[in-house]
């Protein structure tokens, strides 16, 4: 304190010296640039631009595999109670899985699960023992992931989900279907809601727009021009008529709660929301309370169709369902599919996915 009193201008002098040094450094940098040959500066600029263009080109060409984290997995035996499914796609076969826990108990409700980015669905299925015996489960590997062939894309994921669901309706007639999407799969689930009717929709850690989510991570990349797979859920959700519930992780560094909240704010109807205690984005599916919440919501509203997503009684006048010709048929390029209006006939569960 005494030193500061004896030298009141010391700090001011330090600031002046700092600015003087900064100015001198900038002047030196300008002098160096002035003495560099123009060819050298031009070559550096060209190399920098070429580096950006090469990176952007790589992202543009490989965006499907990067977005879906497409990794193949070695073949393995299916656990007990799980039946294989497949249908033909360009480049090979798409593979899925159907679970019926108790062969002696009729499946009244089915969770149709659309997985997250790079998710190993067979690992996820190890938690199915937490489901009630009357609740079945079905899921599949996106193209290029797990045991499925082909190249992943937004359109292909929606088309494959629609074709698989049509197959499930044929082999499990009378079973109530509840679609569950997780993370990346929430965008697929929301689009599927416009293609087919089902009892309820449940979204685990959903986002409003995958394009906007990725743009925040890569601000220097012209993603709007490069990305072909936008997963614009906030636009697609306008047509959803199914009862809907959102499950949030307590801590989520991948899909911030603000993204999920923007989606819910744009939802055309009521949305039930539940936060899974002690969970994060990666491990939310490994919590028993997650599976309890999924099955409770499915069973409650399947048995009480007079209730909305919050458990309140619906108006006496039911909401008219869209006409069949207003439904958009999924355009699957790997073998076609039947229109949703075809009658469903009882048939044994087949493993080849034949229509």
From TrEMBL:
InterPro entries: AB_hydrolase_fold. It comes from the Bacteria. The chain crosses the membrane at residues 36-58. Keywords: Membrane, Transmembrane, Transmembrane helix. Residues 1-20, 310-355 are annotated as: Disordered. This is Lysophospholipase. It comes from Cupriavidus cauae.
């Amino acid at each position: 304190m005494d030193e500061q009193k004896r030298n009141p201008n010391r700090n001011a002098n330090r600031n002046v010296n700092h600015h003087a040094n900064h100015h001198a450094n900038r002047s030196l940098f300008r002098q160096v640039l002035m003495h560099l040959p123009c060819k050298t500066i031009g070559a550096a600029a060209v190399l920098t631009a070429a580096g950006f263009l090469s990176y952007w080109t790589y992202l543009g060409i490989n965006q499907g595999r990067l977005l879906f984290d497409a990794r193949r997995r070695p073949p393995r035996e299916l656990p007990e109670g799980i039946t294989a499914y497949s249908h033909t796609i360009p480049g090979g076969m798409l593979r899925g899985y159907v679970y019926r826990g108790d062969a002696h108990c009729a499946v009244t409700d089915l969770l149709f699960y659309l997985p997250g980015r790079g998710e190993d669905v067979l690992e996820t299925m190890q938690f199915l023992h937490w489901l009630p015996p009357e609740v079945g489960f079905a899921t599949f590997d996106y193209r290029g992931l797990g045991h499925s062939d082909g190249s992943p894309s937004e359109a292909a994921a929606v088309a494959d989900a629609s074709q698989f669901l049509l197959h499930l309706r044929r082999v499990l007639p009378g079973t109530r279907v509840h679609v569950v999407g997780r993370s990346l799969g929430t965008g697929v689930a929301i689009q599927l809601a416009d293609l087919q009717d089902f009892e309820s929709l449940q979204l685990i850690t959903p986002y409003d727009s995958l394009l906007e989510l990725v743009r925040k991570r890569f601000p220097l990349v012209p993603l709007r021009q490069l990305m072909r797979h936008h997963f614009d859920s906030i636009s697609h959700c306008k047509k959803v008529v199914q009862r809907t519930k959102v499950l949030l992780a307590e801590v989520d560094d991948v899909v911030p709660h603000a993204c999920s909240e923007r989606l819910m704010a744009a939802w055309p109807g009521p949305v039930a929301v539940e936060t899974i205690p002690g969970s994060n984005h990666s491990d939310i599916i490994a919590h028993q309370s997650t599976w309890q919440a999924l099955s409770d919501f499915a069973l409650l509203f399947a048995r009480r169709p007079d209730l909305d997503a919050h458990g309140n009684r619906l108006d006496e006048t039911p909401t008219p369902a869209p006409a069949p010709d207003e439904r958009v048929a999924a355009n699957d390029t790997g073998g076609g599919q039947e229109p949703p209006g075809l009658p469903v006939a009882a048939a044994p569960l087949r493993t080849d996915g034949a229509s």
